[in-house]
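User: I'm putting together notes for a lab meeting next week and I want to include a structural view of one of the chains we've been expressing. I don't have a solved structure, so I'd like a prediction I can at least talk through. The sequence is below, exactly as it appears in our construct file.
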Amino acid sequence: MSARFEEIDWRPTPMGEISLRRRRDPLSGDDVYEVKLGDEYLMSSLFTKGEVELTRLGLAELPDTPLDVVVGGLGLGYTARTALDDPRVRSLIVVDTLAEVIDWHRRGLVPLGEGLSSDPRCRLVRGDFFAMTTGDGPRGLDPDSPGRRFDAILLDVDHSPRHVLHPAHATLYTKAGLTALAELLRPGGVFALWSNDPPDDAFGAVLAEVFTDTAAHVVDFDNPLQGGTSANTVYIARRRDG
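Assistant: Thanks for the context. Below is the predicted structure for the 242-residue chain, given as structure tokens.
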């Protein structure tokens, strides 16, 4: 049995102090993994339905053909793991700005880390997803092939389009930023975005200016900490054909 609480790793980063913690849930007896950035909780293995549904809803829009996928934001790995569990996915690039998070997975410090790191279809790439898509320099999400396009881009980094982790991220959620991101998708490809906020009509309108077949899905999940249920939002948008 694990200790009731353990700080597995703590490191300073350009975005603030990041820590990986493990605690034992007093009700279930299961280990719960949590990531904090400063005083903010970024993610918890207690709440993963939104990350899973981000992948499931995004890939559900695509045909039964081999898929090349990018995940922006590694976290505890649930979005990436769900992508690799889809037999259509032949390649997956996971981009994260924090080398520390990638290191947790490669060292097997988080439950899904060994499986992601050892899967030959999966590459963990250190990089700034936002600079790679909307920056002033060369754009591209595959460091080995900057002009490469993908069937799906799944993004789970910021709390929401209105509540970003860094001011530089805000550009992505504008018409210009989304247009730049759409150029990295193949015709008919899908962009999917996780948000911790309710559906945002203003952002949905901007999304619809760039993409077609846009939708905002509310994902409900049990919240044993607060009681009752909580909800995330998953936005889905398809690049126009041609």
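A couple of points you could mention at the meeting. The chain has seven helices and eleven strands. Residues 51 and 79 are 5 Å apart (CA to CA).

User: Perfect, that's what I needed.
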